[in-house]
Specification:
CATH class of one domain: Alpha Beta
Strand order of the largest sheet: 2-1-3-4-5-6
CATH topology of one domain: Rossmann fold
Mean pLDDT: 94
Strand content: 15-25%
Structural class: alpha/beta
Shape: globular
Low-confidence stretches: 1-6
Bound molecules: 5'-deoxyadenosine, iron/sulfur cluster
Number of strands: 19
């Protein structure tokens, strides 16, 4: 492996990751493979021998950030020609984007997409041995590649992907084009991965998929997501199970029952609504109405009153009128989300919504966004306030970023808690008395 005469003994790598947990997981896999190759991870670009940018393309600003970074890397590459620069992820999976990068930033050594990240060690060796660049974007998804080493950030909680891709084709979304069709992992592989994590001391896992409620529909025999939840709930030594994302059209009663009945499955449901207007939901191809969505919320709240419900909401979808937007505002007020990711619609080349004529002007999008954020922040603060004075079970994740004397962890409902406590508690479940609620977190003291 140490083939180049200019090699120093220990090679270091730096990874910058944009986007969702899927991208985070891909970076953890790249890191896992690199560590097996003898590379050491560094948290700074300076002096790194290899820099990887794992890109996102869900919204335009994610792409702009990549261009900004590449500008700075050009100078680094000029000063250190041995530096290897690799670009991967969703943005590279789009043909026109990869072509653009090759043209504008010819100093990039390796370009690959989302379907062939597992081949990265091979690409790296080619660049190092042959001093040439590698561009390989696979058009179609391959089957699932199991057994790739994963270098996880946390030692307490881990993301575990249960399915890849998406079949939904919401008209604004680029994900189905860059991540391919739905493919579910075999439940035995998922279970084995979680058992291995538990044996290493992990206490919480989050099951990941673009639409976890479709899990197992492509398996023979079919497996329901609720069955998977119940199966994982039986793993000894595991404390908590979370999952995301649920699509409102597919979240069935058996999943709500599994959340209610499985002691390890936490009372937190992420249920992206996107819009509160039936007109816009239809144009988004979401396949549910505002009424159906609200019915689902009431069903969850009736069965699991303490459940935290979070969402994704978008403003400024093409054709969104002031009345449509007000319906979204009213829905957010009615549901009173625990928290929400709020987005301004961003045109994505190749998606049906990009071709719609009635694009909403930027100033109106921003004005609606600000009004929405205000409503969402109000309900987050209100939901947090309920916790004041309560004693909550917290899984301690580590030292708090607020103050190194304090610890941080989360409630079962996913609320971030900064608290005074015993450093030995990291990685354990503890009881914390919540003294104060803030807009986006809680504070308290271990008891
Ligand atoms: N513009 C803005 N937001 C988007 N999202 C997906 N595509 C776009 C887009 N083109 C948001 C959706 C989704 C979340 C992950 O990102 O709200 O649920
Ligand atoms: Fe995109 Fe819709 Fe699939 Fe979510 S469900 S990834 S928003 S296409």
């Amino acid at each position: 492996m140490r083939c180049c005469n200019k090699d120093k003994i220990e090679k270091t790598f730096f990874i910058e990751t944009w986007g969702c947990q899927m991208n985070e997981e891909d970076s953890e896999k790249l890191s896992g493979m690199l560590k097996k190759m003898g590379y050491i991870r560094t948290e700074s670009k300076i002096n790194a021998d290899l820099i990887i940018l794992n890109t996102c393309c869900v919204r335009e600003n994610a792409e702009l950030k990549v261009y900004g970074h590449l500008g700075a890397l050009k100078k680094m590459k000029r000063e250190n020609p041995n530096l290897i620069i690799a670009l991967c992820g969703c943005m590279m999976q789009q043909k026109h984007m990869a072509e653009n990068i090759i043209k504008k930033f010819p100093f990039v050594d390796i370009i690959f997409g989302t379907h062939n990240a597992y081949k990265f060690p091979q690409y790296l060796n080619t660049v190092r041995q042959e001093n040439s660049s590698v561009v390989e974007i696979q058009d179609r998804e391959t089957g699932i590649v199991e057994g790739i080493p994963i270098d996880r950030e946390s030692t307490v909680k881990a993301f575990v992907t249960i399915m890849y891709g998406c079949n939904n084709f919401c008209t604004y979304c680029i994900v189905p084009y860059v991540r391919g069709r739905e493919r579910s992992r075999n439940p035995v592989n998922i279970e084995d991965e979680i058992k291995d994590l538990v044996s290493k001391g992990y206490k919480e896992i989050t099951l990941l998929g673009q639409n976890v409620n479709s899990y197992g529909k492509d398996l023979v025999p079919k497996v329901k997501f609720s069955q998977l939840l119940r199966r994982i709930n039986g793993i000894e030594g595991l404390d908590r199970i979370r999952f995301m994302t649920s699509h409102p059209k597919d979240l069935t009663e058996d999943v709500i029952d599994a959340v209610l009945e499985c002691d390890k499955v936490c009372e937190q449901i992420h249920l992206p609504v996107q819009s509160g207007s039936n007109n816009i939901l239809k144009r988004m191809n979401r396949n549910y109405s505002k009424e159906q969505y609200l019915e689902l919320i009431y069903k969850i709240r009736k069965k699991i009153p303490e459940a935290a419900i979070t969402t994704d909401i978008m403003v400024g979808f093409p054709g969104e009128s002031e009345e449509d937007f007000e319906e979204t505002l009213n829905l957010a007020k009615e549901v009173e989300y625990d928290s929400a990711f709020t987005f301004i619609y961003s045109r994505r080349k190749g998606t049906p919504a990009d071709k719609l004529e009635e694009q909403v002007p930027e100033n109106i999008k921003h004005e609606r966004f600000n009004r929405l954020v205000e409503v969402v922040n109000e309900s987050s603060a209100k939901k947090n306030k309920v916790y004041e004075g309560k004693i909550e079970e917290i899984l301690v994740e580590g030292l708090s970023k607020n103050n190194s004397a304090k610890l941080m962890g989360r409630t079962r409902t996913g609320k971030l808690v900064n608290f005074q406590g015993d450093v030995d508690s990291i990685g354990r479940l503890v009881k914390v008395r919540i003294s104060k609620a803030h807009s986006f977190s809680l504070s308290g003291k271990q008891i």
